[in-house]
Amino acid sequence: MDTETMQGKSRVCVVGGGIAGASLVKSLQYAADVVLIDSKEYIEIPWAQLRSMVEPSFAERSIIQHTDYLKNGKLIVSSAVNVTATGVLTADGSCVPYDYLVVATGHTDSVPLSRSLRIQQFKADNEKIQSSDSILIVGGGPTGVELAGEIAVDFPEKKVTLVHSGSRLMEFIGPKASAKTLDWLVSKKVEVILNQKVDLHSITEGEKKAYNLSGGETIAADCHFLCVAKPCGSSWLKDSVLKDSLDVQGRLKVDENLRVIGQKNIFAIGDITNVPEMKQGYLAERHAEVAAKNIKHLIRVGKEEKLAMYKPGSAMAIVSLGRKEGVAQFPFVTLIGWLPGRIKSKDLFVGKTRKHLGLSPH
Ligand SMILES: Cc1cc2nc3c(=O)[nH]c(=O)nc-3n(C[C@H](O)[C@H](O)[C@H](O)COP(=O)(O)OP(=O)(O)OC[C@H]3O[C@@H](n4cnc5c(N)ncnc54)[C@H](O)[C@@H]3O)c2cc1C
User: Fold this and answer.
1) Measured from the CB, is residue 13 less than 6 Å from ligand 1?
2) In 3D, which of 170, 229, 313 has the Cα closest to residue 46?
3) Which InterPro entries match (predicted)?
4) Is the CB of residue 35 below 6 angstroms from any atom belonging to ligand 1?
5) How many angstroms separate the CA atoms of 283 and 267, rounded?
6) Ligand 1 pocket, 37 CB below 6 A?
């Protein structure tokens, strides 16, 4: 592996332009020759998506072109399809050589390639909400719950039904937070049905659509939104040099320096890692900090000693419930209402995230 040499800077290839990959290239761009490979032209702040569905102009700030913060690096808009010990292969036929590789492909999502098309998509979702009297939300994870909250607060006259296959909402946080969230949704007249699956292959068209549930019940609604978990972004690694580094869930096994186990020059950060903690964006940002520090250290010093270590984060999360309220799980307390709402729900950390990427918060 090369230290910074007479021939030029070390080559760092980062795959995945979510919050983890974007944070990393932002801090490494002047220290190395950086290439960012992402399947789309922009980074989207995921926790602002649901607000953008009820207020499409919100997406103008939460969808950011990679070129807005990547000022000294190369962007390749294509999907990575394989990786060797020396380079990353992309769907458009490029092979990007690297001295250091960072895998940050958290989850895959079938979203448009361009920012303008993505904003159009939010406008279309908004029209769908506006023109429906009754809306079915499929999935009671954070996405389904936040969407139900946004619609219930902005469009209280609409009938919202949320169907979840699990026995409680948002299993990624504790039962107390799930129970408080259920009470809040019910207080906003959202009908919540647990332990049921919606059969999306047998929707009957009519004045209203009829959706069959696994328990035999039928729900009538004008439209539905699918809010189920997105697949882990590691399918492109299954036949690669990293295939043996994937755990059973498809996550990359990393050491305390965030290097893929057994690899000297390959790091993984964000949701794709098997770090034993909640998968959260603010933790992905911390991963990026540690990996950037370590890559800079390896480039400058060339020695393994004194690499920064990552300590898993505690089980903390805030889920917004409309514009003013939220539910928060902190290490010793679970809160619902205006306090977590003040922390997250007004701006959904968009200004903060933009600042983190070196951009104006507005
Ligand atoms: C509704 C909701 C609310 C949330 N709220 C919060 C919150 O308030 N605070 C918080 O900290 N976290 C929150 N999270 C969690 C947070 O969104 C994730 O932890 C974070 O986005 C993970 O970032 P990432 O960069 O690791 O992965 P991702 O955001 O999944 O980004 C992965 C990137 O890799 C790209 N990619 C994937 N495969 C390939 C490939 N083969 N080639 C090229 N590119 C590829 C994708 O296009 C994407 O750009 C929330 C999540 C949800 C769903």
Assistant:
1) no
2) 229
3) FAD/NAD-bd_sf, FAD/NAD-binding_dom
4) no
5) 15
6) yes
Q: What is the pLDDT along the chain (362 residues), one digit of tens a residue?
A: 444 444 579 999 999 999 999 999 999 999 999 999 999 999 999 999 999 999 999 999 999 999 999 999 999 999 999 999 999 999 999 999 999 999 999 999 999 999 999 999 999 999 999 999 999 999 999 999 999 999 999 999 999 999 999 999 999 999 999 999 999 999 999 999 999 999 999 899 888 999 999 999 999 999 999 999 999 999 999 999 999 999 999 999 999 999 999 999 999 999 999 999 999 999 999 999 999 999 999 999 888 889 999 999 998 999 999 999 999 999 899 999 999 999 999 999 999 999 999 999 99
State the pairing for strand pair 266-268/100-103: parallel
279 lines ligand 1 (CB under 6 A): yes
Find the 69 Cα to ligand 1 centroid distance in Å. 17
Strands (E), the chain: 11-15, 33-38, 42-44, 63-65, 73-77, 80-83, 87-90, 95-97, 100-103, 134-138, 159-163, 191-193, 198-204, 209-213, 218-221, 223-226, 266-268, 317-321, 325-329, 334-337
Which ligand 1 atom is nearest residue 283's CA?
11
Q: Please tell me the distance from the alpha carbon of residue 92 to that of residue 58, in angstroms, as a whole number.
A: 32
How many distinct helices (H) and strands (E) make up the chain?
10, 20
Contacts of residue 123, defined as CB under 8 A and 6 or more positions apart, other chains included, come to 56
Which of helix, strand or coil describes residue 136? strand
CA distance 312 to 162: 33
Beta-sheet pairing, 80-83 with 87-90:
antiparallel
242: tokens are 């990293």
